[in-house]
Amino acid sequence: MKKSTVILLLLHVMSLLANLATGAYTCKAPNTFGCDNCGTLVICQGTTANPTRYPVNCGSSKVCVKSSDTQAGCKPLNDGGECKCTDSPSLQKDPFDIKYFIMCLSNTAQFSVKCEEGKAFDEIKGKCIATTAVNPPTCTETGFSSNDPSCKTYYGCYYDQSNVLTPTEIFSCVEPNLFDGSECVPEADLIPNAFACPPAEDGGFVDTVECNKFHTCSAGAETGDPLCCPKGELFDANRMRCFPAAQVDKSLCPQISPCADTSALEKTCEDNTLSSLFPGLTTFAPGVLCSKDGPVPYPGDCTKYYWCSSGRYTIQFCPPKLLFDKTKGYCTLPSDFSGC
């Protein structure tokens, strides 16, 4: 039997199973991947209008690890990310679905377990209890909040008669609405708006999606293309400059719901260097190329560029499939590329 035929048969069987399967991860586009829970990877295939879920069990020696909104995979336990047991023996919450928990037996053995129907895992009590009785995290202020990775449920915090800040029962949004941090809204409302300069304002302004990306505005109009901060830095909206991430108040960064479908959003500065993946790859040395601060083309290789600062430079790398455009001053798609 041909390999292609085997694959088609496998996908057909998976499709039959998928018709019966539901989970925390919702397929929003084909050729994407997500995690239903720590033990189940979801492969999304089919059409853009109606992608189909194919749940895959990661097995006993691997867990599902999410690397972005549309990418995930089954990884060894020691690379388990949010699903990695931090203590054993113990029971830990599943970061993807409150109806599951992780049974941690040892550093090399853990299992993803589903609660009984109508129950969810309570991290405080360390067991599955009725969904309406699941204790949310300790309240820190009055208002609404959520500990549900799917954004389908929420709870409130209020002062009781003893003046103790107390959580309410768990409430559910009316489908298909999702909780945005303050109320239940259509899923499309979770997606951030495209950046627009504030009316009549001058200066630098943080992007609506990426905190290491900023726009320059003059009299309320954007001048030039948006720019990326140097590696390891974020844009400080108050000081209107890039600073090391540890020196920037994260509340000034874009606050995007974890349930927002950001797969179609342009992220030109996300992971804009390989040095974060391969420490030591980036060099820092005196250079004569830097007549001004900012990006400078790298001769003979459009996949990287120099970032100049105070007469010195670091070698930066564009994300995969992007090229550095000397006119725009940042990495762009080949279809928009004018030369380096």
Description:
Residues 194-255, 287-340 form the Chitin-binding type-2 domain. One of its GO terms (cellular component) is extracellular region. Residues 1-23 form the signal peptide. Keywords: Signal. There is one protein chain. The chain has 340 residues and is mainly beta. Residues 1-21 and 272-288 have low confidence and may be disordered. The chain contains one helix and 28 strands. The chain has one helix spanning 3-20, and strands at 32-37, 40-46, 51-57, 62-66, 72-76, 90-93, 100-106, 109-114, 119-122, 127-130, 143-145, 153-159, 165-167, 171-172, 178-179, 184-185, 203-206, 213-218, 221-222, 227-228, 233-236, 241-244, 284-286, 294-297, 304-309, 312-317, 323-325, 330-332. The strands form ten sheets. Strands 11, 12, 13 and 14 form a four-stranded antiparallel beta sheet that branches. Strands 17, 18, 19 and 20 form a four-stranded antiparallel beta sheet that branches.
Blueprint (SSEs and pairs):
Elements: H1 3-20, E1 32-37, E2 40-46, E3 51-57, E4 62-66, E5 72-76, E6 90-93, E7 100-106, E8 109-114, E9 119-122, E10 127-130, E11 143-145, E12 153-159, E13 165-167, E14 171-172, E15 178-179, E16 184-185, E17 203-206, E18 213-218, E19 221-222, E20 227-228, E21 233-236, E22 241-244, E23 284-286, E24 294-297, E25 304-309, E26 312-317, E27 323-325, E28 330-332
Antiparallel strand pairs: 1-2, 2-3, 4-5, 6-7, 7-8, 9-10, 11-12, 12-13, 12-14, 15-16, 17-18, 18-19, 18-20, 21-22, 23-26, 24-25, 25-26, 27-28
